[in-house]
Outer membrane protein assembly factor BamC (Variovorax terrae), 361 residues
Amino acid sequence: MNHFARAGLLGLSMALAACTIMDGDKIDYKSAGKAPSLEIPPDLSQLSRDTRYAIPGGAVTATSMQVGRAVDPSTATAATAIGDVRIERDGNQRWLVVNRSADQLWGPVRDFWQENGFLLTLDQQNLGIMETDWAENRAKLPQDFIRNTIGKVFDSLYSTGERDKFRTRLERTPSGGTEVYISHRGMVEVYTSENSQKTDTRWQPRPTDPELEAEFLRRLMVKLGVSQEQSKALVAGGAVKASARVATLNNQPVVQLDEDFDRAWRRVGLTLDRTGFTVEDRDRSQGTYFVRYVDPTTDKKEPGFFSKLFSSSPTTPPLKYRIKVQSQGNASTVAVLNATGAPETSANAQRIVQVIADDLK
């Protein structure tokens, strides 16, 4: 269901590869190679033609249970557990709650990503964040006669035209346990519209895949001692409806959530990871994430809103903002503050609020 990107079948295979392969036996990631500098922003320009492992972007810095139990779709969060591992779900977001300290989990989680074919470009235990490099799911390549006979010799001719990277965030809980979040970011290689001969391609962001996040959470559960059968039962469950909407309060754009603080904090943090914000620090006691942002309107030469939204550039210095989560009862508000903590009402604030709301829906 994919293509030979270098053999001129990119367009056909991209259409065929629209669905994500969630079979546990059909995920086989191949690392892009040597980890790039963490300060290099994503390069969404044309892919180098001499290697299938050319990286489409640089890394982003950033400071028990009853198996098979039905999930009530009317509840805000569904949670099931085996031993000291529990999975929770809110909307299309899932995370693990493990009754072990973050220090105990760091090594096994690092080993987990390496065992699944990834290199780590970010490994900061003091911040509780690790991030993989861009990698290709080689299991998506066609296993036909030609591939099986000459593919091993000319393997560089074969590419899925997609790359994925994953960020893992570990949050300590008051009880001494740890919440583990895995967020996905994807890129896809497409033909440039200005070239009618379809000889040039460009890497562009593709939507976050919640089911791919869920599959890696399931695999991590197995790494932490849950059986394959139990992990599949834990991850399975109906979708849980969650509400997020953009509103204006005191002339300031905000996101309104029908969630209490704990749930809103978790979901906003995962959304920031998913959508590529550069999270430098966070203060849960104050409900604040400290992020970096680049105005996409400052560089007109490179098209695409998401191409420039959260990347950094030597010619476009990033601006610093705070994402503030405030709650009262079962309702929460997410607002954008400037670097000094004052309410932000600029066009940038409106863009950031919209991106957060779109992912939280």
